[in-house]
Amino acid sequence: MWNTGHPAPEQCEGCTWVTTQVAELSYLHSRDVTFAVFCQGPYEESARYRDFMGWKTPWYSAVGSLETLLVGRRVGRMQIICYLRQGSKVFETYWTTARGVEVMDNSYHLLDLTVYGRQETWEDSPAGWPQQCTYTRTSTGSPTWQPAWPGGRPIAQWPRLEAGPPTTSEQFRAKKADQRPRLTYLSSIAPGK
């Protein structure tokens, strides 16, 4: 899902969470499989977010093709769709959404192995066990990771920021000479903010 015209903190935390899990494609490529993101927003705007997040996977805008790619499904939701290409023909072989995309997440699987688990409120945990990190959005980064919903920002954005929210376009223009290039992505994600 892409929130067109919205700044980085307001982008989909679920999509950010899942996309952040995919870093190395060589294992897929060795089996003649690839992975690509078909963003539901405009390419130029979403590619700035991709660059800010440091994602290296192939990235495409599906704007204009969503009704065909997601026929019979709700546009605006995170989806995993697998295709098989044989010559010039393409066949859809798998599809899931919502909690089904959890298959892409290694963090939850590792947390499931720990004594406290995912620390989510739905878990049947003894009294006094931590169950604080229910969301994939927080209002602060390390070390407190204060959950926030609504509000906050996707957790994976915090390591990319040294302190607090991104600078505004006005602050960026005023301090242009003093800012590092990676902050350019933040100010250009939300023009006029």
Tell me about this structure.
25% of the residues lie in helices and 14% in strands. The chain has 193 residues and is α+β, with helices and mostly antiparallel strands. It has one domain. A two-stranded parallel ribbon has the order 1-2. It has a two-stranded antiparallel sheet with strand order 3-4. A two-stranded antiparallel sheet has the order 5-6. Helix 3 runs antiparallel to helix 7. The longest helix is centred in the first third of the chain and has 11 residues, at 43-53. The protein is globular, with a radius of gyration of 19 Å. The relative contact order is 0.15.
Condensed summary:
With 193 residues, the protein is α+β, with helices and mostly antiparallel strands.
Main β-sheet: number of strands, strand sense, barrel status? 2 strands, parallel
The H-and-E topology, N to C, reads as HHEHEHEEHEEHH
Mean pLDDT: 76
Helix content, binned percent: 10-25%
Helices and strands: which structural class?
Answer: alpha+beta
Distance between the termini: 21 Å
Count of domain modules: 1
Number of helices: 7
Instruction: Name the strands of the widest sheet in spatial order.
Output: 1-2
User: How large is the share of residues in beta strands?
Assistant: 5-15%
